[in-house]
Amino acid sequence: MCGIVGYIGEKQAYPILIKGLQRLEYRGYDSAGVALLDGGMKLYKRKGKVSELSAYVSDKDTSGTVGIGHTRWATHGVPNDINAHPHSSPSKELVLIHNGIIENYATIKEGLLNRGYQFLSDTDTEVLVFLIEDILKKENCSLEEAVRLALNEVIGAYAIVVMSKNDPKKLVAAKKGSPLVIGIGEDEYFVASDATPIIEHTKNVVYLEDEEFAVIEPGKKLSIRTIKNAEITPYIQELQMELENLEKGGYEHFMLKEINEQPRSIRDSLRGRMDPSTGQIKMAGIDEFEKKFLNAERIIIVGCGTSWHAGLVGEYLIEELARIPVEVEYASEFRYRNPIINENDIVIAISQSGETADTLAAIKLAKSKGATIFGICNVVGSTIARETHAGAYTHAGPEIGVASTKAFTAQVSVLSLIALTLGHKNGTLSESRYRQLLEELDTVPDKVEEVLKTNPQVKGISQLFKDVRNFLYLGRGFNFPVALEGALKLKEISYIHAEGYPAAEMKHGPIALIDEEMPVVVIANKNTSYEKIVSNIQEVKARGGKIIAIITDGDKEVTKLADYTISIPAIDEALSPMITVVPLQLLSYHIAVMRGANVDQPRNLAKSVTVE
Ligand code: G6P
Predict the structure, then answer these.
(1) Cβ atoms 347, 366 nearer than 8 A
(2) With a 6 A CB cut-off, is 305 part of the ligand 1 pocket?
(3) Pocket test for ligand 1, best of 302, 334, 356 (most atoms within 8 A of CB)
(4) Of 30, 195, 350, 472, which has the maximum CB count within 10 A?
């Protein structure tokens, strides 16, 4: 993880860097730092968030038209001032920022220690900047050549930017595994982990590919080479992103804004892809690989976190509607368990960021075994989107809050389209059911809008339960993954222990936890297992548990049983996860706010996990 940003040009670098770091803070926020060149080298680093760095720097000299900045998510070494980036070389002439992990850092460090170098930090990054300077001095070469030679010795993942006091009109940037984008302005360049720090300055960008490095000099054309020294012609793309999508737009938190954006984001995920009046679904990525999909022996869905939960909903959808066997795997497990994959398999990789290291490694593995890889990503141009054979963007717009909300519903919406189109094409779905589901899918954005009106009521319930220590979430069928997602939302932002369970499985363990203290959130909308879930509610009540039930409008039976109910509009159960999840997002949001937690930047988490 970690966010990196750099600037070189004629403007003052510091304000650009700090603003950029704030945009990148979703990638990690345990410490931050900047280095600026203005004749001499200025280096400021601080444990804590970017705001703590800027407060610390407020009375310091920040002049300089060249600079680099970093916001960290610790991997090697605790978060403190010393382990914060940028890291300096032994002579202090070079500084470097890094996102990724240098896996063979211990071996390189040992070699450098044997030659008398002394390290200040516990990081793998410091080893790299020492190595670059060591090569620079030994080979008496250019900065870029020293970087190139050093990277040839490195195993692992990196996005780096290097700045040198002796070469003040140049930045050298390189990438492998972690993302890096270069913004091209007029006589100025920007470098960052993603385009968000760049968008307000220029829309022209170049995404570096793995094992490429760039020599960035204002007034000169961007020079890109591979670390094996082959020249690359930069491919300049125009950013489609809009600046206002990156702001909070009047909401107190990004998470609340993103929850409320769901009617729009779900609509955007469907836009242009389906027409209920003609019964058509058009998804270029599916059409292109139609034969492969329809002949697939099975579909394997990989993802992490919330994206894995969306994958579980996808499994229920595709198996139910298209009758194609589906397996859903944590990308981190899949990549290391020597899975059986062949050319007849389709792997669907789900990732909001499109940068998650485990998901990326999983698809590379599946690709090497001949499988067809389909991506469902939110970030346009992201690494996973580029690594796949085909795909469908979720079009949810930038998601900044670390807890994923609108990305989840957009992922499920795209998975619904895929399941519907496959079911329709292979004839497992009757025309009438297909048409009915298409029409219902079209109503989902409006129904989410309805559910958002329960916000004051959810807030009231949150007030009652904000101090409990445990929560249980139960659901069945399509809403079992929603129970998992509801529990994940609560634990990640409020730090309350929460477990999601298939409701019937409760009696094999979690029931032992139930007493008067235990709130149990039950997704009890009208569906095929409604009667069963009513029984599960009875079981909880019999043991004194407190029931918060998500019910279909007008449901009198569960209203009588439950302590608190939140009503949602009726919807076919196959499409209900996009609706039932919304009150659970709101519940976790309000509880976290009431507990004084930092909702958008929960402790220890990061939005984009580019380390394994
Ligand atoms: C992190 C984020 C989660 C996200 C997961 C997978 O853990 O905090 O919100 O679900 O990564 O990320 P991806 O970008 O691949 O969906």
Answers:
(1) yes
(2) yes
(3) 356
(4) 350
Alpha-carbon distance 98 to 116, whole Å? 24
Considering only CA atoms, which residue is closest to atom 4 of ligand 1? 305
Residue 114 identity (one-letter amino acid): N
Give the global pTM: 0.82
Tokens of 3: 């966010």
Gap from CA of 404 to ligand 1 centroid (Å)? 7
Based on the fold, state whether residues 273 and 214 are members of the same structural domain.
no
69 within ligand 1 shell (Cβ under 6 A): no
Q: How far apart are CA 437 and CA 533, in angstroms?
A: 24
pLDDT in tens, 191-249: 999 999 999 999 999 999 999 999 999 999 999 999 999 999 999 999 887 777 777 77
Containing structural domain, residue 190: 3-239
Q: Which is the closest atom of ligand 1 to the Cα of 305?
A: 10
In a domain, 184, yes or no: yes
Report residue 7 as tokens: 């600037």
Tell me the angle at which helices 480-494 and 577-594 cross, rounded to the nearest 10 degrees.
20
Using CA positions, which residue lies closest to atom 15 of ligand 1? 351
Q: Is 353 in the pocket of ligand 1 (CB under 6 A)?
A: yes
CATH number at residue 467: 3.40.50.10490
Q: How many domains does the chain have?
A: 3
- Within this chain, do residues 319 and 396 fall inside the same structural domain, yes or no? yes
Domain identity same for 405 and 529: no
